Amino acid sequence: MDELRIDFAGGAVDHRRRFGGGRGQALPRAVGLKGGQSPDVVDATAGLGRDAFLLASLGCRVTLIERSPKMHALLADALARAADSDVAEIVARMTLLQGDAKDLLPGLSPAVVLVDPMHPERKKSALVKKEMRIIRQIVGVDPDAAELMQVALKSARKRVVLKWPQKADALAGVPAVSHRIEGKSTRYDVFMIG
């Protein structure tokens, strides 16, 4: 298996930060970044940390939760390297926790919870990107995604955002969405609280 390395100071992450469209992108809109608001967010399934980094670059304080020890170590290394770079101010708004979000979320009470579980296998014959295949090998599948959503819905103060493939069926065991923000290949199912 090829080695995976997370980099917040360069590459695609830096390009997205500088040229991605800022608060007008689908994810910031789904999280509720409007009118100068920058809510505190928990990224309950941190993965590569790219969504968390984008939100932190737009002013949010983001807590990343990762249960895979290997992915947590990769994120910790990336954050440490970025702390001595030109994105130090951004990563200072990011806090990394290791553990199961279902256990940690109830004690955090964030305004927004972002959930991006491992997406279901695609029905297309084309392979997903190599990087995503490596991540799937590291973290496996998320059979408890619906359970995590239920915990997120009880823990968030304002909204829960589920990042999900554009054409995938709704996640079973989850209530109806309040609204949806759609992209080319990804959609953000938004569940408003209260």
Written description of the protein model:
36% of the residues are buried. The protein has a seven-stranded mixed β-sheet, sandwiched between helices. It contains eight helices and seven strands, in the order H-H-E-H-E-H-H-E-H-E-H-H-E-E-E. It starts with 10 loop residues before the first helix and ends with a strand. The longest helix is centred in the middle third of the chain and has 14 residues, at 69-82. It is globular, with a radius of gyration of 16 Å. 34% of the residues lie in helices and 18% in strands. With 194 residues, it is α/β, with parallel strands linked by helices. The chain has a single domain (11-27, 36-192), classed as 3-Layer(aba) Sandwich (Rossmann fold), CATH 3.40.50. Strand 1 (41-43), helix 3 (50-57) and strand 2 form a beta-alpha-beta unit.
Summarize the structure.
This protein is an alpha/beta fold and 194 residues long. The protein has helices at 11-19, 26-31, 50-57, 69-82, 88-91, 101-104, 130-139, 145-155; strands at residues 41-43, 62-66, 94-98, 112-115, 159-165, 179-182, 186-192.
Mean pLDDT: 88
Straight-line N-to-C gap: 45 Å
Give the total of beta strands. 7
Poorly predicted regions are: none
Helical residue percent? Answer: 25-40%
Q: Tell me which CATH architecture applies here.
A: 3-Layer(aba) Sandwich
Strand content of the residues, in percent?
Answer: 15-25%
Within the CATH hierarchy, at the fold level, what is the topology? Answer: Rossmann fold
State the CATH superfamily name. Vaccinia Virus protein VP39
Using the CA coordinates, give the radius of gyration.
Answer: 16 Å
Structure class? alpha/beta
Provide the number of structural domains: 1
Total number of helical segments? 8
Shape: globular
Order of helices and strands: HHEHEHHEHEHHEEE
